[in-house]
Amino acid sequence: MLRISNQVSIPDHEIELQAVRSQGAGGQNVNKVATAIHLRFDIPGSSLPEHYKTRLLALKDGRITKSGVINIKSQAHRTQLRNKTDALERLQQLIRSAIVVKKKRKPTKPSKAAKQRRLESKAKRSQQKASRSRVTYDD
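Request: output the structure for the sequence above.
Response:
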């Protein structure tokens, strides 16, 4: 059972875990031991609440296919157990990130005093740079 929040959890039978061989260079075990974990989670066929499903399907994430299946591969660790826990944590984080409602930004304008300070600093900088120029003597 994977806990998402206090009210929402995913039963184990909805998460498909498959052990596969890890990629890349390795030692003597690389061709014998299947330590990497390939996780698949079907969003439309899950028992998640509808608003979770719609928010997940609306995400623009490369791990979510067009048919609504989340694919996560974990091969960072040397043991199958650590890769399994890593994959489950990443699934949990993905689902939690989808349900967070972002605060809407209120557009603001700078105050009159802020505009005045900006213009004064620009004038001061301009004067400072102008004073560095070559001095000409008019006789």
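Helices lie at 50-58, 80-99, 112-130.
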